[in-house]
Specification:
The structure is a homodimer of 285-residue chains.
Chain A: E1 9-15, H1 23-34, E2 38-44, H2 50-59, E3 64-67, H3 72-76, E4 81-82, H4 84-89, E5 94-98, E6 101-105, H5 108-118, E7 127-131, H6 135-147, E8 152-157, H7 160-173, E9 178-182, H8 185-193, E10 197-200, E11 225-228, H9 237-244, E12 249-250, H10 252-268, H11 274-284
Parallel strand pairs in A: 1-2, 1-3, 4-6, 7-8, 7-10, 8-9, 10-11, 11-12
Antiparallel strand pairs in A: 3-5, 5-6
Helix pairs in contact in A: 1-11, 5-6, 5-10, 6-7, 10-11
Chain lengths: 285, 285
């Protein structure tokens, strides 16, 4: 007999494509582990259909949504309320349905912060360096500035306009001491040398380019904590070289897990079963 | 690890309320038995939200819908195409999504016809009597007239306008020889006496009024096949008395199963696993 009956609430991923996501496997395993009457599905939604899909999720009393590419920015304009972090990041990846009112959140940056905390990497009062200025860098950098209490935040990137906007927005919306700089060999060496925590948030090193890293191994010191947002491969060249140098390392997989745990807790009000969820991710990576 | 991943398609029930339906348990058991990557959920949808819910199901690429009270008539106007039977019945209980085009069907009447066939009760060339003129009677009577090839169809009811409209519609839309008559003791006795197949489609005998039957036991002859659309209780007083008289009997549960099997086959293109589905219904009735 099936576990799922008419009492079950529905959570779903909206993406385009959505049908290769790990989300359903992760969240369904977590729902089952806690015996919660919830099921999580994935919907391929073309951009032209996003508004109808969100309205539909409301009409169909969905409990929650995950929002992924390419809908994260557009979805922010379709919900009833957006929390401060997501507002500052400028996009949402999570929606909670509170009695027909759709609340938008962004769990990506918090997922990274939680991953650092689980690994025992402190950010309070420390110098944090973010590499990149795209979507991941923006979520991680902004959330770090808002909640991570770093002594200072330096952001290096190669897309000037994006980098400039991120620096300006962090300065305008948070109390963090923030500095941006165009990423090149020289600025990178200087920034890494003066950082305590390095957060790599560019796609460099991602499959298939697994033999690349932005950071030369000789820059890595054992007292530098290294996080890589890339989770495919599980251990990037940056992570391998940092580990070899004795740095504390935090894998992108842990951020991916972390953002899913934040979503789970927003939807259910229950503490997310980290081990259950990690096992699903490990089995699929 | 959960069975349900991102490749799964979604079917759902829209009703108000929907959360006590047996549909999810039945269809999920059937999907699982055949290893199909589908999951079925139930959504409570208020009448004011029905249009957004149907549009949402389209935007979310739902594979199929079940439509139940109070949405069966309104939903007919929200789909792109309605098959001839559902058009004649005047409401839909099933929607199939063919590449974004929503096709409406009504499986209730066919569910009754299939139940009769599974029980070995022939209707071709035989005199069929329908008791009632409401939703169930309309679906069963109209489908019988369109597909059951009865020698003649007599319909007795107590709501004159409804009865009159049903008789008129059957005459206008089918080749069946149809007659309607106000249901009273005398007309009922005469109609039962000249019928080969009796289809009871009123709520009489339903829980909590399980000690009632429209048909006096002395009217029941062993050569009269007796079907009761009521499935709660599983064996109504009418069914018990008919069985005691030696009549072939067909339970409402079998119509309920039959309409679910038709839905399953419309959504999946696979033969429905009758035994798996019956087991779920039996466990819940």
């Amino acid at each position: 007999m099936s576990r799922i009956d008419a009492s079950f609430g529905v959570c779903a991923l909206l993406g385009y494509p959505a049908h290769h996501s790990m989300g359903p496997a992760i969240h369904n395993a977590a729902f089952e582990a806690l015996g919660l009457p919830l099921v999580y599905v994935a919907h391929d939604v073309a951009p032209a259909d996003l508004a109808a899909a969100v309205a539909g999720a409301r009409a169909l009393s969905y409990r929650g949504l995950s929002i992924t590419m390419p809908h994260k920015v557009a979805a922010l304009g379709l919900v009833d309320e957006v929390d401060a972090t997501a507002q500052a990041v400028g996009c949402i990846n999570t929606v909670v349905n509170r009695d027909g009112r759709l609340l938008g959140h962004n769990s990506d940056g918090q997922g990274a912060l939680d991953a650092l905390e689980r690994a025992g990497v402190r950010t309070q009062g420390r110098r944090v360096l973010v590499l990149g200025s795209g979507g991941a860098a923006r979520a991680v950098g902004m959330t770090m500035a808002m909640r991570g209490q770093p002594a200072c935040l330096e952001i290096l990137g190669v897309v000037d306009e994006e980098l400039c906007r991120l620096g300006r927005d962090v300065a305008a919306r948070t109390d963090a001491k923030v500095k941006t700089c165009r990423l090149d060999e020289e600025s990178l060496a200087a920034a890494v040398a003066s950082a305590d925590v390095l957060l790599h948030c560019t796609p460099v090193g991602m499959t298939p380019d697994t033999d690349r890293s932005l950071v030369a191994p000789e820059l890595l010191r054992p007292d530098l904590a290294v996080f890589d947002a890339v989770y495919n491969p599980r251990r990037t060249l940056l992570i391998e070289q940092a580990a070899a140098r004795g740095c504390p390392v935090v894998l992108g997989m842990e951020m991916f897990l972390g953002q899913a745990m934040v979503q789970f807790e927003l939807w259910t009000g229950h503490k997310a079963p980290a081990e259950v969820m990690r096992k699903v991710i490990e089995a699929r990576l």
